[in-house]
Amino acid sequence: MSLRFMLRGVVSAASALAAGAALAQNPAARLEAPTIEVIGTTPLPVLGTPAEQVPANVQGATGDDARRRQSTSLPELMQQQLTGVNVNELQSNPFQPDVSFRGFVASPLLGAPQGLSVFQDGVRINEAFGDVVNWDLIPQSAISSINLIPGTNPVFGLNTLGGALSIVTKSGFQYPGALFQAYGGSFARRAAEFEVGGHGETMDYFLTGNLFKENGWRDHSPSDVRQLFGKVGWETSRSDLDVSYTWADTDLTGNGLAPPTLLEQRREAVFTFPDNTRNRLNFVNASGSHWLNDDLLLAGNVYYRRLKTRTFNGDLNDEYEDAFEACAGDPVCEADLLASETGENNRTFTSQRRYGLAAQLTHLGDIGARRNRFTVGFNYDDGRSDFEQTEQEAVLSPERGTVAVDDEEIDVNLRGTTRRYGIYVTDTWSLTDTAHLTLSGRYDHTRVELDDRLSTALDGRHRFERFNPAVGINLTPRPDLVYYAAYSEGSRAPTPIELGCADPANPCILPNAMAADPPLDQVVAKTWETGARGRLGSIGWSAALFRTTLHDDIHFIASSTTGAGFFDNVGRTRRQGLELGLNGRHGDFTWSAGYAFVDATFESPLTILAEDNSTADAAGFITVQPGDRIPLIPKHTLKLTGEYAVTPDWSVGATVIAASEQFARGNENNDHQPDGVQFLHSGEVSGYAVVNLHTRYRIARGWELFGRVYNVFDKEYATAGALAINPFDAAGQFQPDPDDWRSETFLAPGAPLGAWIGVRYALGDRQTSRAPAADFD
């Protein structure tokens, strides 16, 4: 559904010329443009590949798309615009979702099987400790464009199992002038944002910042986000140098999953609280490129990234049930237990420091009479994580919050060091005017060291290495028609959190206690993809078939309500499916439709602990068979968008996002059945469809009113679920006797009806005299 962005090279080139004469002289800076004319197919986004030569169903979006759709965060923009992207609101927080594409996840939560790599201006921003992606640390107002490159592209390195997301930030050459906006509305949400940019003959600058605060639509769920991004650059016809700085200070509360018996009483209710995460980021990146001659481009970057994360989780005490049984019916013992050990506070502090560098050489030449684009690159990444976890006995309040009754105790004090380097090559050769062959390969070497500062139980030294190849072919019989086919391999090395939590006999409370564990194997992905894209008159279309098989896939196997469990290699898993996209424009009306089918299954038999599954044996284990569906991946997703320019100054638009049912975590064997007594609910999350509206009205030159309505029909739905034990009754009160507890399908409820209105003011070159419909090209 984003095909129109990839096929409009002529229009995009004209827009780029309007941005400044200096930029037009240096093609290495094209990817900073506010339109997508080429695709960044290497980690360093300096010289893209024409879309018709990329053997994948690449999709894209721009910062202008985010402004037009009024998305709150980057994940929301991706969910609205990119086919196959699905968002699970596990934390019920707009900045903490799981983003899934083709059944592969980029998540801020430790324990999620990460399978997407994310780059910001050539720097991989998956964090070192667990490959997590903190979406709250990416300022949406700084984004010029994004490319979602599907498949196991080895050039992007580790963790690119299902795809790579490449983010390019704005520059003063492309975004001169100023823009200010503020909005507010439901959930006590209020936000303000600014952008300022400019340039001279060779120098440019860009600065943006935003403030976001809300109480949240659920109980005890406030969030506070502050972000700042700045970039200064120097550019000539042969050289381009940028230095950028990203700062973020966020305080997010995400009280996610809750049992239906509680949600049926109050949709805003939470299970236990708080579940709070605080992030503070300082990130500096210097990148540049230089044309050594007319055919040879040298590019590189060097960066430093420092992230401090604090979490505070108020949980049910996982040891309460065993302690109650030990009381053996003694009422005094039971009363003491109820007064002192129903809850637990789990706190963590993680300090992550990363630095690295990369270099890339691209040769644009000829082999015989045919054009050839050859790139060789190298990158080094050094990450150090200092992790400390404490636990504290607490009791649950009547509102299900935790109240401390004892001092904190340190459980874990761990240093994890990850050093990675990779060497990659990619070559796109035009065999004929209509046939283009791409060959790629990458060698990765990873060392992970664990140093236990409390004892030596967690000490470990691990090494992983692998060469991953790829090959693709594109046929372009006409300018408006492309066929392609590709095969690729990729891999992911286990992270320190996974290597430190891999023993089923010593389950961890993520992201908490770890024990000495057996080693894990790295995950290897092998992908086949074929498809086509083109245009029929005013309608653009795309279609893709894909299959990715993971060998030695790593999953977190949950074993209790508190999230305790362990990481393990689970053998083979597979994601295969179909993507279809359509888009068009008819006068003042533009529309798009995107459908994705994803069949995600286990392909190796395995036995896992799932005590809240009705089919579990006496020891709490279930057997998963090949063909069983992987939880939290809907088979079908559908997106429909439309926008109409009612007048030259007023536009209205709508988006429909729909997903089919999915299995809950803990129901990996797909066989859980409720009995109405001990096991409640089906072990599935029902499908849903949500309708959103947005509008813009230009009230004067430079001034614009905008509004948005989310979940217009106030549909009650859920985006994720997990089987777990519920110790509370229907009124939300704790039941002292564990025999009264019931296993339920906990749900992550979607947000209800919400509405926001705001005003935007643009100065200088950011003023828009065009009708809103002109933005739709």
Write out key terms for the chains shown:
777 residues; mainly beta; 22-stranded antiparallel barrel; five-stranded mixed β-sheet; 42 strands; globular; disordered N terminus; disordered C terminus
Q: Strand content of the residues, in percent?
A: over 45%
As a percent range, the share of helical residues equals under 10%
Termini separation (Å)? 13 Å
Number of strands: 42
Tally of individual helices: 9
Regions with pLDDT < 50 over 5+ consecutive residues? 1-24, 510-518, 769-777
Describe this structure in words.
Helices cover 8% and strands 54% of the residues. The chain has nine helices and 42 strands. It has a 22-stranded antiparallel β-barrel.
Brief synopsis:
This protein has 777 residues and is mainly beta. 8% of the residues lie in helices and 54% in strands. The chain is built from nine helices and 42 strands.
Task: Summarize the helices and strands and which ones pair or pack.
Blueprint (H helix, E strand, L loop, with lengths): L2 H4 L2 H10 L2 H4 L13 E2 L9 E2 L8 E4 H7 L4 H8 L3 E4 L9 E4 L2 E3 L9 E5 L2 E2 L18 E8 L12 E7 L7 E9 L3 E11 L3 E12 L8 E13 L3 E15 L6 H4 L11 E19 L2 E21 L3 H8 L3 H10 L2 E25 L2 E27 L5 E3 L4 E22 L4 E18 L7 E19 L2 E12 L3 H4 L8 E2 L13 E14 L2 E13 L2 E5 L5 E6 L3 E14 L2 E14 L3 E4 L11 E4 L11 E12 L2 E10 L2 E2 L20 E2 L2 E13 L2 E8 L7 E9 L15 E8 L4 E10 L14
Parallel strand pairs: 7-10
Antiparallel strand pairs: 1-2, 3-9, 4-5, 5-6, 7-8, 9-10, 11-12, 11-42, 12-13, 13-14, 14-15, 15-16, 16-17, 17-18, 18-19, 19-20, 19-21, 21-22, 22-23, 23-24, 24-26, 25-29, 26-27, 27-30, 28-29, 30-31, 31-34, 32-33, 34-35, 35-38, 36-37, 38-39, 39-42, 40-41
